[in-house]
Amino acid sequence: MAKNKEPIYRVRFMNAGKIFELYAKEVTQGTLFGFVEISGLLWGRKSDLIVDPTEQDLKNEFAGVSRVHVPMHSMIRVDEVEKGGGGKIISMNREDASAAPTIPIYTPGDAGPTKSK
Q1: Is the Cα dihedral 52, 58, 11, 7 positive or negative?
Q2: Of 41, 73, 90, 93, whose CB has the highest number of CB atoms within 10 Å?
Q3: What percent of the chain has pLDDT over 90?
Q4: What's this model's pTM, rounded to 2 decimal places?
């Protein structure tokens, strides 16, 4: 990976029985204890031919959000990648979904944690 490029991160975490995959410019241990802070969300290019409708769901979910705070125990993995892509929501099978906790996501400016849709 070229040293002069800013890193891009692919972040996967569980929320409401689904796996959310986002691309971001920055992933850090947040100032809120026990949370990972994700900022600089990146979305797929409009010129991409393959369109995933779940990316639009993610765009709607995170519209106007500058930083996302995800509980550490919801994180699956963080990868530094060469180029970003479109985010997506991955459904888990029924057995996995029943074992996965429903975790509220807190974003600054909210009155408090809310469950994602």
Answers
A1: positive
A2: 41
A3: 38
A4: 0.70
